[in-house]
Amino acid sequence: MAANKKEKQVAASVKAITGKPGNGVTVIPPAIGTGYIKGFALSPQLRLIVRQYELKENLMLDRGMAEEEAQFIVIAFHHIYQSKEEMKHRPSPAAANGRSLPSVQVATTGFNYELLPANKKINSIVITVHTDYLKELLQPKEGSTLLQMITSGSQPFLFEEIISPQIQEVAAAIVTANPTKELTHFYYKVKAEELIYLLFAALLKREDTTLQALNAADVKTVYEIKDKVLSDMSTPPVLTELVKMSGMSESKLKRIFKQVFGNSIYNYYQIFRMKEAAYLIREMKLSVSEAGYRLGFSNLSHFTRLFEAHIGVKPKKYATGK
After folding, report:
1. Pairwise CA distance, residues 14 & 63, whole Å
2. Do 232 and 294 belong to one domain?
3. What is the DSSP letter of 156?
4. Which pTM value belongs to this model?
5. Of all helices (H) and strands (E), which one includes residue 283?
6. For the domain that residue 57 is a member of, what is the CATH number?
7. Ranges for the HTH araC/xylS-type domain (predicted)?
8. Most buried of 9, 35, 99, 123 (most Cβ within 10 A)?
């Protein structure tokens, strides 16, 4: 009986994690970890889930939904909230494997999967929204290829975007919110729509909106390439090695990587490299020269110029927080 009860607890928690709990809080049972999943069914076409937990074992999460759910899109904001105390005690740099920096995936249900690692704090917000609801919000115009494709419900897609400070602020407000009881659903509905707005405002800034058909194997491969690119921030990626690893042609790898992540492989690497530099300088209190050398720069003038181009201020000024 005890084993049966444990299995039911685990099944209930996994069901909640997959993105379809009802209203209320599901506490992760001690059998699989600690923490909670808080769900809000804001309308028949809009749901919001807040996930704050740590698992004892790895769990491969597949948010593929039933056939009747096929017209829903999943928007998953990962690593959206971290307290200053947690940042101080973070054991390794954020970009060490590309998974710890805040990011958001927007995908059709068939492409939305995630490895939930053991012994690591998971904090994310997941929004599931029907294409009809999204179409009403976005009002896609003729010629807006990206918006039309996303709201059509006829083509599988996956995009990932690095989370902006604005998105982080809204996400942190959701995680820490204590809204008036009678207005709880109203509050979370407004915040969910605000996150959707900020995400699509970022996606529409992408220069190249040429869209190619994707399949699950291509998505899996491009994420393996992403992890390889971000595995060592001090060593720039070597395209020939990545092409060999992917099993794709060079042109196909470049095209799919840019479609999913919105940047070329090298530019994507540089973005994360500079975010890592910012972390080392501001949080780890390394000097500008120490951060530059750790990230593979031999020319500190070049490092300073690149840092300012990406972060907006020179590294010495960034270090003071002024």
Report:
1. 11
2. yes
3. -
4. 0.82
5. none
6. 2.60.120
7. 223-321
8. 123
Look at residue 147 and give its three-state secondary structure.
Answer: helix
Structure tokens at 41: 């069914």
* pLDDT per position as a tens digit, 268-305: 999 999 989 998 998 889 999 999 999 999 999 999 99
Element (DSSP H or E) covering residue 266: helix 265-282
Neighbours of 186 (CB within 10 A): 12
Q: Quote the CA–CA distance of 157 and 206 in Å, as a whole number.
A: 15
**How many residues in total does the chain contain?**
322
Q: Using one digit for the tens of pLDDT, what is the confidence trace for 4-17? A: 554 555 555 555 55
Cβ atoms of residues 188 and 174 within 8 Å? yes
Residue 220 dihedral angles phi and psi, to the nearest 5°? -60, -45
Per residue in 173-198, pLDDT tens? 998 888 998 999 999 999 999 999 99
Q: Which domain holds residue 242?
A: 216-320
User: How many independent structural domains does the chain possess?
Assistant: 2
Q: CA-CA distance, 113 to 19, in Å (whole number)?
A: 11
